[in-house]
């Protein structure tokens, strides 16, 4: 996909149906692993509570996301979709969603998707821009609106585009890039500059249409709290990330599954007996460390927070600064959500052909920019998303997915069952914003606990779990309703 | 200790110094395992911030508690102490604390302690009453106060006595027991009735003296929130239980250690290969399940909360109702904080000589009252705290610690290192109430996060943990101070 | 690869160098993970102890095998190679070996390889036949020999072909197939029939040339012991499988790595929280069970041997007959080395879309033949090596690699580091047969313990392992040489 | 028990029945955990196959051994017993065995036992001498024999006494001790010198009576193989240690249970988060490492054998020489079977109050002799079997059980279920020697595999294990009988 695809209902060329057919097989299998979403289709399909909703989605365009998209549609919504990562799209899933279960290549009956595996940064932001262009739908409806009324976001790029678009429109123009502007933000500026040239009030109208955003990730949520603290948040936001059934499941159990999957697909490196270093012992790091230990690796952890550090120690892990053990490491994994965690000086200190992998968020966890500008460093592609960097020291390191999320770039992301938890939260959050709008003035919210428990409840039968029921007497004794919610808000699980 | 000891500075008879000497040895070893408390002595000893504090403590009188008590004293406080469980006192620790590091049997220089292993209920509540009698100290100071100005509580019995005492004094008398009154509450009523007879305004004055209480346990905290919700809480309370370094450490890692310890000391039952059932998958249940799995047991878990149930399943445990698997169980552990979790019908369904053990809170997790009144059931003492109950079915079960906390009754409770975390929180909480009184109007509080992180920080060196430090740039990137606190309040660890 | 390739030095068409180049990259990375083989090149390369050796290899043609082949060549041997499994060839590895590090497509300088991914049974046995045809090499040397002087075998197919070839030649012809003859054995008979027609004494001469075979697997070794017990073994055999550094490493740690890898690549099924059933608790089953538990699955094991069954129980696994729990299983793994372990009645009892995977040896662990002839069963290809079987019950099961070894068919087999252990044993065994021929009269042998320890020793540095050295005094105390071997032969590790 | 007890049927003073009654309770509970022994009583009790057997037993006199002794008696044998360790006797078990289920203090009806907790070396060897004195029994029977006809040994001390006794009798006298003679061997010499003075041909007659010995431990077995290799073994020996159901169960799963039990009873040290060092990764070390990891310790292992070292690495443990990490260790465990593993230089390098514990065999794993003679070292008894050694460095270490087996000295040894496996092997081995005498000429034997499998089989029901049965067709396919044995002799489990 080397050229920008045309703006059309079918956003990219599918030469024949084979890609979509393969994707449809996988979607069908994934549905079996996503009991939460399937239960919502059954519960809410008849009443169509999302009728009238126009959802702009920016989230890895995988098979699981296909089941999410088709669930939103089954509840009555209209949807436009982009990926939130240049490498994470599974093309067959995108094709299947575009074609739709009943459609054909020539008459697609699905959802407009703007995503493919291996986008350039320009293509990525063009795609993100596209999900805010609801002119075709407005024309079809004879409606006045410009954009969506809901955003479903992962990492906050869609939300960022709206906020900066409106900001620059208010300021009368897009600022020039400076030396300090990152390569990616230059593309954002260019994208918005082109938009303002076409229509100088577009983002202001888009922002006005929006009822809110539901955000998937730690990083995105962090941005939202900062925006809100600064008084700049434009619409209500639901923090899906901090639902227990998201953060404690997707982040931990998802990474536990997909980190070794990505390592295996990318390399032939045995984990058993090796020294693996995990930077960060939050939920992501906990899942990573457990997975690596489960494969017989010796895991060393780093942490900045003394509480998490103490947890890591109590869980039996060695806790050290990266500098202290750099020469022993075979597999280096970052999962912090911070930047510059692995710097060039670290890369230079690693063993020959050590593997470097990021499961945090952005590619700046590993300082890829500095590596790319390191004199004497040479990049050799072993296969797509696996690069040997030959360093001036004479040693090499293997960098996965160019420092971006390797569980998406080298594997297929979290498995469906885990994503079913996250995405059931997403759908419930979209329902909250759309059907209980008044309950959410501008601000950042987590879902109420009874919905969090509902998400869990919808996933128990598939695992053969029997839930014990409180007697009324027992419920009274601990002061909770028999049917829940069962815990105080500050309970940590 | 079969008779009520005299009210005296030395609350029970120590025939010679051997018990106190043995306790002092253990206290010295425990100090090496309690780096948090020792660090507080070093930091705050010189400034004596607890000078003037009068602390009534009700918490298992173990070796670790001895280090806590002596830390409070080292910070300037005066202390009186009772245990919060009839079986949990380690007599040598009590003796050593009474005698004090410099004292003798004839001239004890330590702290008045009212606790011994194997109290009757009458003795227990008498002891609890004693810690509120500061008349000797008041006389020595020429002061007017009746009781303590701070409570350090575990389970809430001390707090309960004050609240009921004041309530009955306000009502003009203690109500009669009814058929529905539990055996234990009858003793509470009797204890208060005697108190009111001696002094009809004592508890009202005690309540008036109090600056607040710091509470150790889930159960006690639950009572406090209920009292506050009902508008009946008499003074501020700090919920120590929900400090991360308490609930996530003491409850989980403490039980992980002390459950198998108690099982081993009580019985000769191999855990490996056996079926262990753990009721409840909160922090206590998580620690219990991990410990049993670590010994090769096959662990089945029960839960009422779908989120915790899903966690248990994702952690690889079978999740079933107790009824479904009762006939397979070799070791049955309760850690729910609820009542009637194991009922007589369950006990009758267990395998011959199955072990029944409670690490939750009260002895009503297992319905001991119903067992005791079961026709045809016979109790045979194998050794103290280990009883074979011969059931009418012809089978027997082994009940540990008469259904009370077996990790205290059959072992020595949580190990010192874990308790150092909990107790460092306790001391910091006492400091908050005493030195920052205005910051805590009547209500229930958790400690601020920077203190929670401080507790963790004080325990890292002893484990050889290296903490990674944020650069100012990284701190700014994620929006936290370099020195912490690092997490939002709702972060779950 | 749909037509039989021509008999040539380059056994199959490589359109351009890209496949070989990709393979060479992977071989280079694998060399970094195979310290045992690289150490042998360093130790024995100069002295060329395998000069004159002609090795017919039948073993999965993977990247790791490429490093093995090139090690044999580096020690002086000439080699011809086939795969021992129709699905296990990695085409890029085969291409790279054929081309050789210095060769080109037009002037290959490597080793003749007869293997590609997805052979038919006819092609498979044609390939196996080809590794015994050393006429081109004989012509080049002006030599009289017909075939190889050494076999390196995996599963015993190459050895079987020689034994049956010689047997039928002695009998004067190949017997007719009967109704009881399996589909695969019919192909063997056809292959030999064609051979006898061309040359009626070829296999007799081949057998006469052979100094022996080194066998990789449990199954192959089992056949060899049976042949020897029946007095029919034609040449000495070294049982590489039962070197500790093979059976306890390849079988256990290899499967621990490659089973989840295969499951992940084949399906999107989360292992965490699922019920996984592992048939067999030998080394393969132990590795499988550990891997699945390490991913949070609940693992149930079956066993026929009471000792292994007791081990499984003591390791914390539930041990049940497959029939007893069939309806609970999400992932069903076979690793027994026996046949008919999973039968059609089991497949019909599984949950919808349960995954069925074999890591034992032959595809008859799962009764694929019966499934294929089940009326009403329909096979849908999800993707290569992943088939949904729609059953008459209305449910489906997902069968991986058509019941053959899924860690090879769906993943890339054991990782290099594990194979380095196995293959270092193979090279040492080839060296024993070729350079110490007199020490091995016809019979089946394991490698002497000092070589087994040597294999381990060559892999320690790469893992940062420090070995403790005995003092002469300590060695004398336990009666072993300071430099080993350290254990009695019956020691079980 | 500070004086040598009188030679009598009741070898030591039992003031009243309370000790024996407590022991009898525990024996009854242990019987529930020893299904193998109870099944043998049921199978062989009626036929009395050990009628006429006179067994001298030297094995830790615990509750489990009581069940073993009473099983031997139930099969018809007469028995005399000593412990094989000065600290390991459980006095209540000894008392109960002496008194017997039906006896009284005044009329004991059990077995003569010569063992109590805390023997001196002189007492220990006196006790061992006593089990060879069957004069009372001979007199009662009017028989001519001097001693037992079978030995049941643990560590080989009983066997050693016979061999040295006969050797010195043949030499005409006991040699003088030299400077190189160990303190313990001086006691052996004194014991034999006294015996020769009383009766100069006693041990020659004892040796002549003996049909053989069954030996429990690695160390004892090692001595037997050495004796046999030197041509000095006097009678056949069955190596019970190397039954799979012994070495792989008792050594590994027993230590997994009893190591943490001993640590917990001895100290209040949390294992979680601590650095534990395990010297030796044989079966004992594997069990120790698993137990410590299961409690959240970070485990470092040392090994001399490269195969075991590689196993440790592949199991995820750091493998280092003790010297390399000595300053990081909190808990130091030896399980090697060798001497001088922990030397004074190591003890001086440990952290303050590090715990030092031996679960190998003799107290020379830790060089206690050198510690005892270290100038400036001071020993403080914290409690029995727990000593603080204050070192000249100013630091202390805690040494458990004076360097002897701490799982016996600080805890109660392996749990009953594990010992049931070992002891069922012992009984079967005694049966082999006594009833199939001709099958065992002088030499060292392991039990035939079908008996090893039988031991396992007798323990499955108690764990709820379902064994899968081979079909005749499957059995034929892998070439084993349907009912076993299933494995070749070199199979490693």
How would you explain this protein's 3D organization?
The structure is a homotetramer of 493-residue chains. With 493 residues, chain A is an alpha/beta fold. Helices cover 43% and strands 13% of the residues of chain A. Chain A has helices at residues 18-32, 35-44, 63-74, 91-99, 121-130, 135-141, 157-171, 183-198, 202-209, 218-229, 244-266, 283-294, 306-314, 322-325, 344-349, 368-372, 406-409, 416-435, 449-457, 472-478; strands at residues 54-58, 78-82, 113-114, 150-153, 212-215, 237-239, 275-279, 298-302, 318-319, 331-334, 354-358, 378-383, 386-390, 396-400, 444-445. The radius of gyration of chain A is 23 Å and the shape is globular. Chains in contact: A-B, A-C, A-D, B-C, B-D, C-D. Chains C and D meet through helix 10, helix 11, helix 13, helix 19 and helix 20 of C and helix 10, helix 11, helix 13, helix 19 and helix 20 of D.
Largest sheet: spatial strand order of chain A = 9-8-7-10-11-14-13-12
Spatial separation of the terminal alpha carbons of chain A:
45 Å
Which parts of chain A are unreliable, with pLDDT below 50 for 5 consecutive residues or more? 1-10
Q: What's the story with the biggest beta sheet of chain A?
A: 8 strands, mixed
User: Given the helix and strand composition of chain A, which structural class is it?
Assistant: alpha/beta
Output the radius of gyration of chain A. Answer: 23 Å
Give a brief description.
The structure is a homotetramer of 493-residue chains. Chain A contains 20 helices and 15 strands. With 493 residues, the first copy, chain A, is an alpha/beta fold.
């Amino acid at each position: 996909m080397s050229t920008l695809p045309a703006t059309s209902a079918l956003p990219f060329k599918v030469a024949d149906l084979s890609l979509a057919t393969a994707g449809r097989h996988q979607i069908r299998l994934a549905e079996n692993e996503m009991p939460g979403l399937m239960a919502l289709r059954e519960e809410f399909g008849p009443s169509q509570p999302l009728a009238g909703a126009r959802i702009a989605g920016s989230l890895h365009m995988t098979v699981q996301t296909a089941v999410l998209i088709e669930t939103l549609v089954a509840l009555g919504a209209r949807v436009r979709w982009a990926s939130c990562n240049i490498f994470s799209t599974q093309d067959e899933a995108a094709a299947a969603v575009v074609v739709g279960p009943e459609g054909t290549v020539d008459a697609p009956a699905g959802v407009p998707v703007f995503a493919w595996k291996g986008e350039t940064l320009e293509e990525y932001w063009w795609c993100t821009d596209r999900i805010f262009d609801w002119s075709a739908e407005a024309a079809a409806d004879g409606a006045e609106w410009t954009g969506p009324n809901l955003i479903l976001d992962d990492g906050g790029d869609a939300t960022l585009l709206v906020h900066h678009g409106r900001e620059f429109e208010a300021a009368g123009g897009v600022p020039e890039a400076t030396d300090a502007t990152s390569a990616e933000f230059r593309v954002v500026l260019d994208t918005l500059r082109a938009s303002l040239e076409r229509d100088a009030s577009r983002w202001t109208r888009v922002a006005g249409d929006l009822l809110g955003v539901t955000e998937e990730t730690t990083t995105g949520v962090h941005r939202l709290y900062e925006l809100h603290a600064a008084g700049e948040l434009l619409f209500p936001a639901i923090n899906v990330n901090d639902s227990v059934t998201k953060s404690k499941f997707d982040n931990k159990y998802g990474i536990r599954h997909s980190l070794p999957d990505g390592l295996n697909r990318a390399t032939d490196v045995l984990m058993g007996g090796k020294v693996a270093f995990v930077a960060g012992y939050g939920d992501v790091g906990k899942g990573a460390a457990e997975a690596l230990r489960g494969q017989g690796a010796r895991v060393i952890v780093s942490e900045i927070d003394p509480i998490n550090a103490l947890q890591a120690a109590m869980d039996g892990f060695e806790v050290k600064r990266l500098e202290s053990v750099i020469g022993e490491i075979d597999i280096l994994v970052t999962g912090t959500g911070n930047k510059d965690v692995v710097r060039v000086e670290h890369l230079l200190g690693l063993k020959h052909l050590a593997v470097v992998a990021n499961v945090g968020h952005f590619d700046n966890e590993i300082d890829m920019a500095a590596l790319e500008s390191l004199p004497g460093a040479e990049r050799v592609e072993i296969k797509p998303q696996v690069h040997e960097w030959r360093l001036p020291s004479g040693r090499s390191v293997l960098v996965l997915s160019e420092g971006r999320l390797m569980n998406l770039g080298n594997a297929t992301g979290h498995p469906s069952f885990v994503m079913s938890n996250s995405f059931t939260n997403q759908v419930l959050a979209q329902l909250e914003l759309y059907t209980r709008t008044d309950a959410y003035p501008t601000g950042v919210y987590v879902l109420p606990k009874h919905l969090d428990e509902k998400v869990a409840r919808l996933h128990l039968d598939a695992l053969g779990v029997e839930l014990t029921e409180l007697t009324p007497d027992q419920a009274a004794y601990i002061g909770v309703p028999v049917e829940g919610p069962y815990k105080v808000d500050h309970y940590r699980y």
